[in-house]
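ok new one. same drill as before - C-alpha cells go in, u give me an amino acid for every spot. 338 of them this time. try not to just spam alanines like last time pls lmao
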C-alpha cells in the first residue's frame, strides 16, 4: 500500500469506525483519469474509496453534479464522506456490472430504452444560472484541437499542412455552429456503456459525471448510440434516436420538431466527439501510458468515416483522410482490428 492509499485507508477508517483494515481492501479497475478506486468491505457491506488527486481532478464539481443528479432522481453513488481538498472520497458501492458487458442483440433495446429515459429524466429539471459551465465555442474548439495535435502530429507523425489545416478549420466551424444552435441541456459528456452500471433491480446507475456542462441536446445520445466501445447498425441507431426525439417532444422540449435536423445535429455532434476522442485516446497512450485505448481507435475511426461519407459538407475532410491519413493509419499495428 503506497502513501496515498494509506492516507485514504486511514481517513476511511475514521468515517467508518468499525473498519477492520487492509484485509478488507481491494483495487477496482480505474478509468481514463488519474483517479484510483478501492473497494472497502466490512461484513456484508462495501463502499468505494476514491483517491482523486486535487491537482488534476474535479472533486468539487463531482460533488456538485452528484447532488444535482440525485435531486432529479438519478441513480448515482451515495455520498458517505468527502474531503475534496485532499481528494479523498467515500462513496456507496454500485457494483461492477457495466452496461457494456450485458449488451447483446436481444438485450440492447431494453437497456438503451432505459438509458435514453434516464437522459430525459436528467433533462427534466432546469439548470440554474451558473450551475453548470457552458459547453461553448472555446470548449468545443479545444476538444477538436486534440485531433491534429495528438492524433495526426504526435501519434501518426503525419502533420497537416497549411491547406489541410484550413480544411480541418472549416470542418470544425461547421461542427461548432451545429452544436451551438441546438437546445441546451445538462450534458454528461461521457454517457456510454462503461459509465452506466446495472443495479440489482435493473436500474441504471450513472458515474463519471464530473465534467458535465450545459450544451447540445444530442451530445449524450451520440455518446450512447455511437459508443466508442460497441457499435450497432445505423438503421437501428436512427430508430432509437427518432424514438428519443419523439419522447422529448412529447415531454415538452421545444425546437425538436424536425427529425432530419435532429439527425444531422446528432451525426455532427458525434463527429465532433469522435474527432476529439481520436486525439484524447492518442494522448492517453502517449502521455499517460494507457495503451489499451489504441485498440479502440479503429471503431472511432469507423464512426468518423461514416459521417464524412454521409454529408457533402465534409468532402474536404473525407479527402484529407483518404489521401493523407489513411495510408499512414493502415501501417499502424493497432489498425489491424479495424
Amino acid at each position: 500500500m503506497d502513501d496515498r492509499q494509506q492516507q485514504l485507508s486511514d481517513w476511511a477508517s475514521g468515517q467508518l469506525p468499525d473498519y477492520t483494515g487492509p484485509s478488507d481492501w481491494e483495487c477496482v479497475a480505474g478509468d481514463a483519469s488519474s483517479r484510483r478506486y478501492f473497494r472497502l468491505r466490512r461484513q456484508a457491506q462495501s463502499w468505494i474509496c476514491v483517491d482523486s488527486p486535487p491537482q488534476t481532478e474535479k472533486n468539487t464539481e463531482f460533488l456538485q453534479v452528484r447532488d444535482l443528479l440525485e435531486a432529479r432522481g438519478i441513480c448515482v453513488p451515495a455520498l458517505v464522506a468527502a474531503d475534496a481538498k485532499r481528494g479523498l472520497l467515500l462513496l456507496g458501492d454500485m457494483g461492477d456490472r457495466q452496461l457494456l458487458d450485458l449488451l447483446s442483440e436481444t438485450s440492447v433495446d431494453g437497456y438503451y430504452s432505459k438509458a435514453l429515459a434516464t437522459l430525459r429524466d436528467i433533462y427534466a429539471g432546469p439548470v440554474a444560472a451558473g450551475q453548470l459551465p457552458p459547453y461553448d465555442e472555446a470548449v468545443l474548439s479545444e476538444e477538436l484541437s486534440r485531433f491534429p495535435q495528438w492524433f495526426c502530429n504526435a501519434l501518426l507523425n503525419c502533420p497537416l499542412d497549411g491547406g489541410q489545416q484550413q480544411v480541418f478549420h472549416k470542418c470544425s466551424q461547421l461542427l461548432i455552429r451545429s452544436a451551438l444552435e441546438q437546445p441546451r441541456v445538462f450534458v454528461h459528456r461521457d454517457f456510454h456503456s462503461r459509465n452506466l452500471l446495472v443495479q440489482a433491480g435493473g436500474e441504471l446507475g450513472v458515474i463519471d459525471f464530473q465534467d458535465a456542462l450545459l450544451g447540445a441536446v444530442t451530445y449524450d445520445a451520440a455518446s450512447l448510440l455511437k459508443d466508442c466501445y460497441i457499435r450497432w447498425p445505423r438503421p437501428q441507431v436512427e430508430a432509437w434516436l427518432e424514438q428519443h426525439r419523439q419522447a422529448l417532444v412529447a415531454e415538452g422540449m421545444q425546437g425538436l420538431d424536425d427529425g432530419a435536423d435532429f439527425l444531422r445535429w446528432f451525426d455532427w455532434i458525434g463527429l465532433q466527439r469522435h474527432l476529439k476522442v481520436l486525439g484524447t485516446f492518442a494522448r492517453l497512450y502517449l502521455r499517460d501510458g494507457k495503451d489499451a485505448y489504441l485498440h479502440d481507435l479503429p471503431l472511432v475511426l469507423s464512426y468518423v468515416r461514416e459521417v464524412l461519407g454521409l454529408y457533402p459538407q465534409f468532402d474536404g475532410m473525407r479527402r484529407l483522410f483518404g489521401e493523407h491519413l489513411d495510408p499512414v493509419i493502415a501501417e499502424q499495428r493497432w489498425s489491424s482490428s479495424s
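The chain has two domains: 3-92, 99-337. and btw The radius of gyration is 21 Å.
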